[in-house]
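Chain and conformation:
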Amino acid sequence: MAVGIGTQEVAGGQPVPTTALPGTPERKQRALRLPRSPKIIAGLAILAFFVLWSIVGPLVAPYDPSRFFASAPVPLPPSAAHWLGTTQLQQDVLSQLLVGGGDMLLVALIAGVIATALSVVIGVTAGYLGGLADDLLSMLSNIFLVMPALPLLVILFGFLGKSGSDDLFLVGFIISVTGWAWGARVLRAQTLSLRNRDYVDSARIIGERRWRIIFAEILPNLTPIVASSFLFTVLYAVGTYSAMAFLGLVNPEWNWGGMLYFAQSYNAELSGYWWWYVPPGLLIALLGTALVLLNFGIDEFINPRLRAAGLTRRTGSRKEARALRSQQFGLTSVLLDSTASAATAGTARDGGQA
């Protein structure tokens, strides 16, 4: 009978390889999958909540967010009539919260789609073509990477005026201009590692066109990175749109950044009117948390080291994690034959007697 590492018991001296960890059922070894990741599930749940909020919120808002109520010298605290109190102008804070989520999600989605498309086209093209095209496109990416985004956005939004700042598509496009370069650099680096793979060389040898190789051979292998880049850009757009609204450079009325702008204008934080600025700030932070959890979950799924760490936390066994990492990074299995073991033990015993 032979005893092996990474093998089952054998009959007739022939090992039968197995992929299961010692003491770990095969079902547990495959326990970590993208839909089952706690980060993915939590992020999707929170994001679905905000999507539902943006759709249903304007329909269930108790009042028109621009409606003025009884005149009062200061904002009124939460009450039965106004669950989250009123603003300095006696407008209902809850109604503004319910109405203000849709514009932010729409702008973030537009910016994410445009920036991701730019990063895919520029990054993958530069990485695959190489040469002068790679140098020029990489130089363009580097320029946008080092360019200070906030001053540029302030200047661009300053030229828009009131009518331009109300155009959500235009606002999303301007934000995407400053958010595509990071993803393009990452995709270029990954494309450089893929363009000389055997399946790409085979497609090139049989005469496939460049665009077909890029979109059918290379881009499908970059899908997780593209998804991570999209989520990062959406998160960037949420923060940027909130910052521009807080500075009063875009339509500041019925979005969460605009609520912070008006609260700051009337010194709500210094006067203790917490119901005016805390709810929109928490909602922006919670939306950002959902996108970060999704991004971390995708990173954990595509990164072998993080995937091994995730399985370690699930099984609770460090020994199993070490064995999993050994299998992932190609340690060769060692087979110890019982005949060779007996011969070695006999030699050692004879030497001891001598």
Observations:
- Residues 1-34, 328-333 have pLDDT under 50 and may be disordered.
- The longest strand covers residues 7-11.
- The longest helix spans residues 101-129.
